[in-house]
Amino acid sequence: MSRLESRFLEKLGDTWETATPGFCVQAFHRGKKIVDIEVGETYRYYDLASLTKIVFSATALMMKADEKIFRVSDPVSRWVPWFPEGTPHRLRDLLSHTAGLTWWYPFYKAVAKKTNARTSPEEAWEVFQSILKRKVLADVKKSNLKEEKAVYSDLDLFMLGIAMESISGTTLYTVWSEARDRMDLRDTDFHRDNEPKRAVAKYAPTEKDSSWRKKVLQGQVHDENTYALKGVAPHAGLFGTLDDLSQFGLLLRKSMRGEKTKRFASPETVRLFTKRAIPRTRGDWALGFMMPTKGGSSCGPMFSLDSVGHTGFTGTSLWYDPRRDLLVTLVSNRVYPTRENKEFQTLRPLVHTWIAEEV
Q1: DSSP labels for 96-131?
Q2: Is-contact 311 290, C-beta < 8 A?
Q3: How far apart are CA 185 and CA 82, in angstroms?
Q4: What is residue 145's predicted lDDT score, i.e. its pLDDT?
Q5: Concatenated DSSP letters for 292-329?
Q6: pLDDT at position 22 over 80
């Protein structure tokens, strides 16, 4: 253990014990690993939750943008057949969460009624779209894009998922598989049909679900809507390792620093997606990526306002600060045994601050 890691653990003390059963954290300064620590009860694989939004959806769209198939300024109606033409909604509005769509909706209740154990993820996705359509069209009628403040919405990602299939001419899972193979993320994948790919004991349990599934969730996605979609979705569903998450972060870092690599999108496209997309008065978003909110960010106060990243509901996150050239990746199962425990929201920025103080 390095001196830096020892000092980090001294600062950490026992503050984590009421926030999560355990967590794993890695940090890279100037591309060199400086922290690699596991605390408490840890596992090989974690439910990455909303990190799916950047590891899959934003990244796949960046790769497709390099192919000149679409532009972020394209009307949503160009790529979503049933979206009303003549509206001002653009793909960039979905990516910056300013399209005026509701933040969340319990679609799983209606989807589950129309599917069964033999329904594939692709069939469930088709069923889901007819349900989603009614909700989205109602929101669009009420939206005013000139005044909309950012509302972090899963519905934005659902719409981007439909657009991705149109842009790529193939299924969501195939789009993911191509991106995964290109990035060489060998230990990261969706669990199709909600079946774990490896022994269940290797996965961090998330929650004792007493309201719907009536079991401890371990190796099956925590997000209800993704579960109803048979494990594959554009907003959640990826399971992976901390090492793979850090590998993704290092590829992102390389492109943000202007270094070309065949394994990731071009620096020009990455620069477009990782710069501020909306005024601070409307929210703190690049295209698909979170940016720090001054005075209240999950990456703490020491990360610059140019930083980009994302969080996951289960207790996962990735943040990269291009000014400090500092990458921090973190996985946990803070929702076990219950999502009602909110103390991780206090711990996570402290973890980032203690690491940033050392560099």
Answers
A1: TT-S---S---HHHHHHHT--TT--HHHHHHHHHHH
A2: yes
A3: 34
A4: 82
A5: PPTT--TT-TTS-TT-EEEEETTTEEEEEETTTTEEEE
A6: yes
- For 288, phi then psi, to 5°, come to 90, -20
- pLDDT tens digits along 43-95: 999 999 999 999 999 999 999 999 999 999 999 999 999 999 999 999 999 99
CA distance 219 to 4: 33
Residue 347 contacts residue 330 (beta carbons within 8 Å): no
Helix (H) or strand (E) holding 63: helix 59-66
- Are the beta carbons of 231 and 192 closer than 8 angstroms? yes
Q: Mean pLDDT in the chain?
A: 97
Strand-pair category, 238-240 with 308-312: unpaired
Cβ-contact 97, 155 below 8 angstroms? no
Which tokens hold the place of 295? 């005075």
Predicted TM-score (pTM) of this structure: 0.98
CA distance 26 to 330: 7
Q: What are 261's two structure tokens?
A: 């690599």
Element (H, E) at 47: strand 46-47
Query: Tokens 């390792």 identify what position?
Result: 241
Structural domains in the chain, sorted by start:
3-69+171-358 (3.40.710.10)
Q: In the chain, how many H helices and how many E strands?
A: 13, 10
Beta-carbon neighbour count of residue 95 at 10 Å? Answer: 24
Residue identified by tokens 């993911």 is: 176
